[in-house]
Amino acid sequence: MSSILRWSMTAVMALGLISGASAASLDKAAPQDPIARQVRHELIMIPQLTVFDNLSYRVEGGTVILTGEVRNGFIKDEAMARIKSIAGVEKIENRIEVLPASFNDDRIRREEAAAIFGYTALSRYSWGVVPSIRIIVKNGNVSLEGVVDSKMDKNIAGIRANDVLGVFSVQNNLVVER
User: Are 69 and 135 contacting, i.e. CB atoms less than 8 angstroms apart?
Assistant: First the structure.
């Protein structure tokens, strides 16, 4: 039984890590504005994004404002490069924060993913190209970003995130969709 549970957890985490992009604005249906729709598409297509990165964007006329937090500078640069090639984009403000490298933060990320996505009621939030819950860890502080279906799911995710050893604080920014 233990090996089945371990295999299931590994599969769920692999799906979440392989699944691709993450961004608050990417959770919603494709926007009507053609530039915003193309920006969303380009950000989703960045293969290095995981549940541990959070990208969002805003389009104001011909200006695209990129925000969020990512684990490495490559993802920040890749987002910028992909947006530059979009017709109609005149200016890009890249406000994406690169999270500091830390072995402890990497450990916390793994344990947070296991705690949250290993819980049966929350495992579905790691599925798909744009995972619904993203786990941002900076200097031992955890921020949960994304969209969930119910207040109960939001609360459970926050409780599970708080149970991980070595976490200083948890900011539950999950939005209830309904």
Answer: no
Please write the tens of the pLDDT for every residue from 139-150. Answer: 999 999 999 999
pLDDT per position as a tens digit, 8-46:
444 444 333 333 333 334 655 556 789 999 999 999 899
The beta strand positions in the chain, using DSSP E, are 54-60, 63-70, 91-98, 133-138, 141-148, 169-172, 175-176
Q: Which amino acid is at 85?
A: S
pTM of the model: 0.81
Q: Could you give the CA distance from residue 118 to residue 8 in angstroms, rounded to a whole number? A: 8
The pLDDT value given to residue 26? 61
Residue 82 or residue 14, greater confidence: 82
Domains within the chain, CATH numbers bracketed: 2-16+101-176 (3.30.300), 19-98 (3.30.1340)
* CA of residue 12 relative to chain centroid, distance: 15
- Taking the C-alpha atoms of 78, 79, 80 and 82 in order, what is their torsion angle to the nearest 10 degrees? 80
Please give the structure tokens belonging to residue 112.
């947070």
Strand partners, 105: none
What is the distance between the alpha carbons of residues 144 and 90, in angstroms, rounded to a whole number?
32
Tokens representing 103 are: 């072995």
Q: Where are the beta strands (DSSP E) in 39-139?
A: 54-60, 63-70, 91-98, 133-138
Count of CB atoms within 10 A of residue 5's CB? 10
